[in-house]
Amino acid sequence: MRPSVLMLAGWLAITPLIISCASGPSASAPAAVATPVASTPTGTATVPAKAAVAPDYIIGPGDTLQVFVWRNPELTVTVPVRPDGKISTPLVEDMVAVGKTAPQLARDMEGVLGEYVRSPKVNIIVTTAASAFSLVKVVGQVAHPQALPYREGMTVLDAVLEVGGLGQFASGNRARIVRTVNGKETVIHLKLADLMNSGDTHENIPLKAGDVLVVPQSIF
Q: Rounded distance, CA 65 to CA 59, Å?
């Protein structure tokens, strides 16, 4: 065989190797990295809601309660307080809620649940305060006298603004809050005119559920 033919045969023999190397992965190409995917347990964890009232709030008909039973999501429910003053939850039927604070009701429910659940821990939160016990009544010389649903942190200024402000003939500095504490009625005097007209924040006191804000008429 002539030399030229031998050279051609050799070239044809190594060509596939060259092509194979050229078509392989480049040294500079980044390697593929698997992104870990976080796995989550089935179902949705239930967390306590934010309370609408203070812990010493007295529950009344029309309120909405979240009954949170720790480590027992199937027993955690949100229920209204019925007109008869009772609530019903899984394993606890017709429990009297009216007249109790949320912690008191929680302890009563733990006593019943203890027959079915080992060492139950109950947390009750008033998510909506809509009973007559929770209303803040604003009466007298204001634009729109009315009863307002109480909420945690509510102040005198909040209430006055919600009823449209003081009326034309209001004697703001003779206003008063009538509050019942432990069955006894107390009166807190306010200078609403100074609060509304001069921004005297010392008069912007916190309200409590059941307060009655009275704004008298000016004496001419």
A: 9
Q: pTM score, two decimals?
A: 0.60
CA separation for the pair 124, 45 (Å, rounded): 17
Tokens for 209, please give them: 């559920």
**Strand order across the 212-215 sheet:** 146-149, 135-140, 212-215, 175-181, 184-190
How far is 70 from 88, CA to CA, in rounded Å?
A: 18
Distance of alpha carbon 50 from alpha carbon 52, whole angstroms: 6
DSSP code, position 152:
T
- Cβ burial, residue 145 (10 Å; 0-12/13-18/19+): middle
Identify whether the C-beta of residue 207 lies closer than 8 Å to the C-beta of residue 148: no
Partners of 138 in beta bridges: 146, 213
Q: At residue 128, what are phi and psi to the nearest 5 degrees?
A: -135, 120
The string of pLDDT tens digits covering residues 121-150 is 999 999 988 888 788 999 999 999 999 988
